[in-house]
Specification:
- The complex is a heterodimer of chains A (about 300) and B (about 650).
- Chain A has 11 helices and 1 strand; from the N terminus they run ααβααααααααα.
- With about 300 residues, chain A is an all-alpha fold.
- Chain A has one domain (about 1-310).
- In chain A, α1 packs across α9 (about 220-245) and α3 runs antiparallel to α4 (about 100-120).
- Chain A is globular, with a radius of gyration of 19 Å.
- Chain B has about 650 residues and is mainly α.
- Among the domains of chain B are: about 270-520, no CATH class; about 550-595, no CATH class; about 600-645.
- Chain B has helices at about 1-20, 30-55, 80-100, 110-130, 135-155, 160-190, 205-220, 230-235, 240-265, 270-295, 295-325, 330-365, 375, 380-390, 400-410, 420-450, 460-465, 470-485, 490-495, 505-525, 550-560, 565, 595-620, 625-645, and strands spanning about 60-65, 70-75, 530-535, 570-575, 585-595.
- Chain B has a two-stranded antiparallel ribbon with strand order 1-2. A two-stranded antiparallel sheet of chain B has the order 4-5.
- The longest helix of chain B is centred in the middle third of the chain and has 36 residues, at about 330-365.
- Chain B is globular, with a radius of gyration of 27 Å.
- In chain B, about 50% of the residues are buried.
- The model of chain B has no long low-confidence stretch (mean pLDDT about 85).
- Classes of the chains: A mainly alpha (about 300), B mainly alpha (about 650).
- At the A-B interface, β1, α3, α4, α5 and α9 of A face α15, α16, α20, β3 and α21 of B.
């Protein structure tokens, strides 16, 4: 129990600290692809620090929803971060690590964010929440089937055990992880609101989804929304990394092994962030009603994994 | 002791019915208050009674009245029956508390008294139905339940809408009784008794016939697609406290019947499970998809009842499938999940219907487009509705999440089944189930957001007032239960003797609290705490108007577009022009209709066929005396031939 608490503390703090770095890195890569220099790597940290010092402005139309949502978001996402070990794989306590619970904690954050979008009565916010809930409804079967395929492949529904098993087995034993990773990558793109689903760069354009819901936020509240979005992205990246290339992650706590895990995770995360940045630069934002096609692709990959596994 | 609790409770209910029915014309508000308090106490007695049986896992038997050896009103309550009695009395108790504030708002004096008489009879008939230990008494109380609920649906009978809904409901509910009767007579044919006891030695086809007629009979009452059409009609027409009872409790009684016959009377085949799973999946998905397009808040909730009945059926289907393969651990998980969802749905759906009743009362409309901003004028109702929404959207750590988690968990472990075909069906069912629950979340963002957030979109919504204390206390009790049942689910199941492979939500709840405390502390320390009030940002528009807000139609439009093949919208555009070349536009009408698939393709053809048939029969009647004599002669001849044939 005590070791779990230590794990929880270290893992969470590490995830919170590393998340803004990946956000800036993706921006940097995109800028490089566009021929610009881009912001410094620590820009997101400066931004959060600045936001914390600013005052909060609320619209007169708002209710308590817009005030509690930043807390709900941060709490849900931090609780979800307990489910994704990046420093070492601990023993599961009280059923923590259940994938359904992990997914629904993220849904809980999204639910309140969508409500907050409607709270101020702004057209942008409403549009954002409507689209966010639509996209999340259509991607949900894909997410579940991806994790069902994982649980079929690794014979467990606990994330800790999944990572432990994929750590022991290699790609040659489980080639199906490649297919699953493609779907996981699409989920990462969708859930972290990136091109071609959403455009994180354009504020106040009619194409945006995620940013539209945050329009009414300012000051420390906005900082909380931004950090929780960054953490969510890191968590989904970590799931993909731990399934596809888990090497370096350790199952035994210890100063040396944990520091190896941390360093390899930062390296792998940086590579994935570069891939995401390049991927975003290669595509254009697609129409909202074209998105189900992309999701069907992910659904196809993961369902074919299930079929392969059944035929094996 | 148990006898006393049970009989006392029943006596109070019947007493209230008598009191309210006999003095229907004269009884005043004080008498009605007395009746409701009496009903509340009777419900608490029965709650104590059922909780004792559930906790001790004991049984209770009472032979109340005997017409003949086969036809008797005898009751036997085991753990399953007691569980459902607990659901009924718990929900009814809170509804009674709510009704103390609610019933006085509309209707004539006689109407209100009659409503209470029917409500009491309705609750007691459901209780006795669940307790019945033979088919005769079950069917008797089934009919009383149907008729009293029909009379309550007709409360606003001056409105044409209500009359149509009432008639629709009455026809459907009698059809359900007819199908149940087929099944019961078939069982009697085999076993020779009306007892609800295991039946063995039936041929496969006959067993299939019994199962199908019972499934249709109970399915109509539970609102399983495609027998669901009465539900949105009846729920939107009846007063809100009655909707809460009907949706929260009555449709669960049908689930009880189904579970009772599947578990204790028949020996299920594997295909039954698959069939129930398929029906459940489609009810769940189509229920939520239809709910998304509704703007009538009570119809929206009614469609969500169909969705949740679907989820309960999915659990039952999984139970039957796993049981037929001998995986009893997984089967138990699915069944307990489905039973727990029954309780949870009873709670959060009655919570939502009651708070909706308050909102409809305060604004005078059921159309959510005309609401908005209500959380500022009705904060308590708003927060209670939010808790209901969060529970039904299955967000952790609320109760709706735990039961869906159990069903998900059972689904995810279906890889141990060897049959690949069945495995694929199960994985497809899993993905549709996930879609359902995500759409439910979207639908309740819409419902809560459009009703309670932003600014009012009509004069009525602007003038709305918070409702009376009773109308907050009733739902508040349920809201607290929703949270407690979610957080302490693991401890609850352990204390009942079930150790299930689910997450300990108390631990998660504690973790969430600790994290919240830390985050709050950190934000207090490092964050700037000054706030300022300003306008909503609107691209430089001087002042925001409520016309600019996102409405319910706008919110669900993208989903409607994506699922267009299911809604089958028809666009109808009529344009008139000034000139023959059709270039100068004069006026025109544009309409968008959603095609009522079930009504136009299934219900109306059947109704037309019956209408035609009854036309033929009535033509036969419209003749002179000679022809009647010919009919009698023909009947006698047919009878003689028939008798000769069989003997």
């Amino acid at each position: 129990m005590l070791s779990f608490l230590i794990y929880a503390l270290v893992n969470t703090v590490f995830v919170i600290l590393i998340s803004p770095l990946f956000v800036s890195l993706i921006k940097k890569v995109k800028a490089y692809m566009q021929g610009r220099e881009g912001p410094p790597l620590l820009q997101t940290y400066y931004l959060l620090g600045k936001l914390l010092k600013k005052e909060t402005v609320y619209s007169g139309n708002t209710s308590l929803i817009i005030r509690i949502t930043p807390y709900v978001n941060v709490v849900c996402v931090i609780a979800a971060s307990l489910f994704v070990p990046v420093i070492y794989i601990p023993m599961s306590v009280g059923g923590i690590g259940n994938i359904i619970l992990f997914l629904y904690l993220l849904v809980c954050a999204k639910f309140f964010m969508a409500l907050a979008g409607l709270d101020a009565g702004s057209t942008f916010g409403g549009m954002g929440s409507s689209r966010e809930m639509t996209v999340s409804a259509v991607i949900e079967p894909v997410i579940i089937i991806v994790f069902a395929a994982l649980s079929l492949l690794l014979k467990t529904t606990n994330l800790y055990q999944m990572f432990a098993i994929s750590l022991k087995s290699s790609l040659f034993i489980n080639p199906s992880t490649l297919l699953i990773s493609l779907s996981l990558f699409i989920i990462l793109i969708v859930e972290s609101a990136r091109i071609p689903v959403d455009n994180p760069e354009t504020h106040l354009e009619l194409t945006m989804i995620h940013e539209a819901m945050l329009l009414e936020y300012s000051g420390p509240d906005l900082a909380m929304m931004e950090i929780s979005h960054a953490i969510k992205q890191t968590l989904l990246m970590a799931v993909l990394i731990n399934v596809l290339i888990p090497w370096g992650l350790t199952a035994t706590p210890g100063v040396l092994s944990v520091s190896i895990s941390v360093i390899t995770f930062i390296a792998k995360g940086a590579v994935l962030a570069i891939v995401v940045g390049v991927f975003e630069s290669l595509f254009a934002k697609s129409r909202l009603f074209r998105l189900p096609n992309l999701f069907m692709l992910a659904f196809f990959f993961s369902f074919s994994t299930i079929l392969f596994e059944l035929l094996r | 002791m148990m006898n006393l609790l049970f009989v006392c409770g029943l006596c109070v209910f019947f007493g209230v019915t008598l009191l309210q029915a006999v003095f229907a014309a004269r009884a005043s508000a004080a008498v009605r208050r007395f009746s409701l308090w009496a009903m509340l106490c009777a419900n608490l007695l029965l709650l104590a009674f059922s909780l004792t049986i559930v906790l001790r896992n004991s049984t209770f038997y009472l032979n109340l009245y005997q017409i003949s050896a086969a036809m008797r009103f005898s009751f036997s309550v085991d753990r399953l029956a007691a569980y459902f009695i607990m659901i009924i009395s718990l929900v009814s108790a809170t509804v009674c508390l709510y009704s103390l504030g609610y019933v006085e708002h509309h209707g004539s004096n006689t109407g209100k008294n009659f409503l209470l008489a029917m409500m009491s009879l309705f609750i007691v008939s459901m209780l006795l139905l669940v307790a019945s230990d033979n088919t005769f008494s079950l069917l008797f109380f089934w009919e009383i339940m149907s008729i009293t609920s029909f009379l309550m649906v007709m409360f606003d009978r001056d409105q044409a809408d209500t009359r149509k809904s009432g008639l629709f409901y009455f026809v459907m509910t009698q059809m359900s009784t007819a199908f149940l009767m087929f099944g019961f007579i078939a069982i009697y044919h085999v076993s020779g008794s009306f007892d609800i006891a295991p039946v063995t030695g039936i041929s496969e086809t006959f067993k299939a016939f019994i199962f199908l007629s019972l499934f249709i009979g109970f399915g109509i009452k539970a609102g399983v697609m495609p027998f669901h059409k009465w539900l949105p009609y009846a729920h939107s027409a009846s007063p809100s406290n009655i909707s809460a009872l009907m949706s929260g409790v009555m449709i669960k009684v049908a689930i009880y019947g189904l579970i009772r016959y599947l578990l204790f009377v028949l020996t299920p085949d594997r295909w039954w499970g698959v069939m129930i799973l398929v029906f459940g999946t489609f009810s769940a998905l189509l229920g939520v998809i239809y709910a998304l397009k509704e703007h009538d808040i009570k119809k929206l909730l009614a469609y969500h009842s169909i969705e949740n009945i679907g989820i309960i059926l999915i659990g039952i289907g999984l139970y039957l499938i796993f049981q037929s393969y001998g995986f009893s651990d997984l089967a138990t998980l699915a069944l307990i999940g489905s039973l727990f969802h029954t309780l949870n749905h009873a709670l959060f759906k009655s919570l939502l219907f009651l708070t909706t009743g308050s909102v409809v009362n305060a604004t005078g409309t059921r159309n959510i487009e005309k609401m908005g901003g209500l959380i500022k004028v009705m904060p308590y109702t708003g927060i209670l509705f939010l808790i209901g929404s969060v529970s039904i959207a299955a967000l952790p750590p609320f109760n709706g999440f735990v039961s869906e988690l159990m069903i998900f968990q059972a689904f995810l472990q279906s890889f141990i089944i060897s049959n690949p075909f069945l495995k694929i069906i199960l994985f497809l069912g899993l993905s549709l189930f996930a879609l359902t629950s995500a759409l439910a979340a979207a639908c309740f963002v819409k419902a809560f957001g459009v009703i309670f957030l932003a600014t009012p979109r009509s004069e009525e919504a602007r003038k709305a007032k918070e409702v009376s204390w009773y109308m907050i206390a009733g739902p508040a009790i349920i809201a607290v239960l929703c949270i407690l049942l979610g957080i302490f689910s693991f401890q609850l199941f352990s204390s009942l003797g079930f150790t299930l492979p689910i997450t300990n939500m108390a631990f998660i709840g504690l973790a969430l609290l600790v994290i919240l405390g830390l985050v709050w502390l950190i934000m207090r320390l490092v964050g700037n705490r000054t706030t300022r009030r300003s306008e909503t940002w609107g691209c430089g528009i001087i002042s925001q108007h409520s016309n600019m807000e996102y409405t319910a139609s706008g919110f669900s439009e993208p989903i409607l577009t994506i699922f267009r093949p299911i809604y089958r919208t028809r666009k109808n555009v009529d344009r008139n022009f000034h000139d023959p070349g059709r270039s100068i536009f004069k006026d025109g009408i544009a309409e968008i209709h959603t095609f009522k698939l079930f009504e136009e393709r299934i219900y109306l053809p059947v109704a037309h066929f019956i209408e035609k048939l009854s036309g033929v029969v009535s033509n036969l009647h419209d003749v002179d005396l000679d022809t009647y004599i010919l009919y009698s002669f023909a009947a006698v001849v047919i009878l003689i031939i028939a008798v000769g044939w069989f003997i």
